[in-house]
Each structure stands twice: as C-alpha cells, then as structure tokens.
TrEMBL record:
<dbReference type="InterPro" id="IPR005659">
    <property type="entry name" value="Chemorcpt_Glu_NH3ase_CheD"/>
</dbReference>
<keyword id="KW-0378">Hydrolase</keyword>
<dbReference type="InterPro" id="IPR038592">
    <property type="entry name" value="CheD-like_sf"/>
</dbReference>
<dbReference type="Pfam" id="PF03975">
    <property type="entry name" value="CheD"/>
</dbReference>
<dbReference type="GO" id="GO:0050568">
    <property type="term" value="F:protein-glutamine glutaminase activity"/>
</dbReference>
<dbReference type="GO" id="GO:0006935">
    <property type="term" value="P:chemotaxis"/>
</dbReference>
<dbReference type="InterPro" id="IPR011324">
    <property type="entry name" value="Cytotoxic_necrot_fac-like_cat"/>
</dbReference>
<protein>
    <recommendedName>
        <fullName>Probable chemoreceptor glutamine deamidase CheD</fullName>
        <ecNumber>3.5.1.44</ecNumber>
    </recommendedName>
</protein>
<comment type="function">
    <text>Probably deamidates glutamine residues to glutamate on methyl-accepting chemotaxis receptors (MCPs), playing an important role in chemotaxis.</text>
</comment>
<keyword id="KW-0145">Chemotaxis</keyword>
<comment type="similarity">
    <text>Belongs to the CheD family.</text>
</comment>
Length: 161
C-alpha cells in the first residue's frame, strides 16, 4: 500500500517507491519535485522565498529556493540517486494578492518561480513540467512509481503534469 508523506511549509523530504509525497496550500510558495526514475526516488521541497542571502533569519535551508534545491539534491544522492538522472517538476508561485504599482518586491510567487528555474538550470536539472503562476493555491502529490505530479486546485480542477 502506498503511504502518503506530508511535506510542510519550508520543509523537504525524500522517499522511495511505494511512498507518495504531498504538500498543501502552495500559494506564492513553490513545490519543487525531483525524480530519479531508475530507482523510483522522489524528493519534494516546499520553498517560501527565492534567496536566503536576502534574509537574516535563514537557518532553515528548506525555506529558500537557493538552499533547498541543493539540499534536496544532496539528500537524494545520499539515498542512491544519480544527479545525471534527476528531472524536476514545479508547481505554485501564484500571485495571491494584488498590489498597486509595478514593483517586483511584492511579487514573491513570480520571484520564487524565476529563482527556482535559474537554480535548476545552473545545476543542469531539466524541468520537464510545471504548473505555476495564476492567482490560486495548489495542493500537490508526487508519485514515486511514475514521477507524476498531481496538482489539485479549487476552481481550476485536478491535473497531472
């Protein structure tokens, strides 16, 4: 039987088949799922902010795109994953509230997605699917057998990417 393991906000976890990872309530946060098909290993990080270097209280590495992705890769390699096989799927990064003006400072969701894509690109981990942006929250499930990522939304249905 498949067991569902919850990943909290500013948290990350790694599991092998037959387990499933889920994270709830991705608004401006981004869920970053990595998958190694050969050994059916998945990792999921629920990041809140793009860059740990801009925040004084940055001890929680899972909270930031720059540190969480590196930590996720390290943990997956420790579990037998091979970096050259890793692929990524990302979801979230919504603009949950509207702000006047064109300042990017308040566009946390957008900045989280940009940072995630840049870091994965720098680390040569291909993003094979994404469901990002919009103005609605998402709950996601990542399946260790297929690497499938199920995105559940209110008012926008359920889809697998």
């Amino acid at each position: 039987m498949q067991k569902i393991i919850k990943v909290g906000m500013a948290d990350l976890k790694i599991v092998k088949y037959p387990e499933i990872l889920t994270t709830l309530g991705l608004g401006s946060c981004v869920g970053i799922a990595l998958y190694d098909k050969k050994i059916q290993l998945i990792g999921l990080a629920h990041i809140m902010l793009p860059d740990s270097r801009q925040i004084k209280n940055n001890a929680n590495k899972a909270k930031f795109a720059d540190t969480a992705i590196n930590l996720l890769i390290e943990e997956m390699v420790k579990e037998g994953g091979n970096r050259s096989r890793f692929v990524a799927k990302i979801a979230g990064g919504a603009q949950m509230f509207s702000f006047g003006g064109n300042s990017d400072v308040m566009k946390i969701g957008f900045r989280n997605v940009v940072a995630t894509k840049e870091i994965l690109g720098d680390l040569k981990v291909p993003i094979i699917a994404e469901d990002t942006g919009g103005n609605y929250g998402r709950t996601i499930e990542v399946y260790s057998d297929t690497g499938g990522l199920l995105v559940k939304t209110i008012g926008h249905g359920i889809k697998e990417i």
